[in-house]
Amino acid sequence: MFSGSIVALITPFNHDGEVDYVSLKKLVDYHVAAGSDGIVAVGTTGESSTLTIEEHVKVVMKTVEFAEGRIPVIAGTGANATHESVTFSRLLNNSGIAGCLSVTPYYNKPTQEGLFQHYKAIAEESDVPQILYNVPGRTAVDLKPETVARLSEIENIVALKDATGDLSRIAIHRELCGEDFILLSGDDATGLEFVKQGGQGVISVTNNIAAEDMAKMFRLAKEGKFEEAEIINQRLMPLHKNLFIESSPIPVKWAAHKMGLIANGDLRLPLTELSESARPIVAQAMSEACIY
Predict the structure, then answer these.
(1) Exposure of 56 in the CB half-sphere (CA atoms within 13 A)
(2) pLDDT tens for residues 206-250?
(3) Quick check: 127 and 160 in contact, CB under 8 A?
């Protein structure tokens, strides 16, 4: 259902702070042409926390419209208030999305029982498959494997995006959740190794600017051609690392603008543009990866 190289898509803005739908369509077409396996619209990389509910839903719906059925679109529906995530789920029912990706609630630091009840409430209000998203480095809360296992028993909770970078969890999740539960990496630097150890793919930041290479790498991995895949991965490793030299998506939006994929690299406060000192580092990574 969900596998391969899925892009955690940036949300482009005009200089006035409004969403740039012309650039958004260009991005969708770029990923279709490159062979990306899916798009996550308005996830963390899409600056979901700075969009209003109305903007959030519109960006998802426009992404589905621009995709025209050529590529699956997964909606980011995470929030730190359960009722807000439930609202996203309700508004996006029957919208044409392939699934929802919900990050663990940030800042309020719920217990494991709170996390279970949060995701259970979302799943009950949605008619599409649900992907759990664990990224404790951003949210200050860790969705434990035992809680993932409980949630995997809910019919429409089908996958986990694990951005912990802890590869030891793959075997634990597989044992606790069964062979049918989908495991996706949320960490580009360890994404290929994640698949080698039994994961099905990655939801990627790097994919925003190296979509063709990422798609090819994970196709090779799916075919068991890990040595060939590793050659691509090592070439992209400077991007995997340096696209996080400042808070994502600051570096990747700067890079996407430099490549002409979006009209400008503007972000919404409190994020600010890539610093002058970081720009040559990201540019060098792009050069070493042979994408610019």
Answers:
(1) 25
(2) 999 999 999 999 999 999 999 999 999 999 999 999 999 999 999
(3) no
Instruction: Compute the Cα dihedral for 219, 260, 255, 283 and give only its sign.
Output: positive
Is 147 known to sit in a ligand binding site? Answer: no
Residues in CB range of 240: below 8 A, 6 or more apart: 188, 189, 191, 206
Q: Spell out the alpha helix ranges (H) of 35-81.
A: 53-67
Task: Name the CATH superfamily for 4-234.
Answer: Aldolase class I (3.20.20.70)
Query: Per DSSP, which regions of the chain are E strands?
Result: 4-8, 38-41, 73-76, 99-103, 130-134, 157-162, 182-185, 201-204
**203 assigned binding-site residue:** yes
Residues identified as active-site: 133, 161
Q: If you count them, how many residues does the chain have?
A: 292
pTM tops 0.90, yes or no: yes
Q: In DSSP terms, which residues pair with 76 in a beta bridge?
A: 101
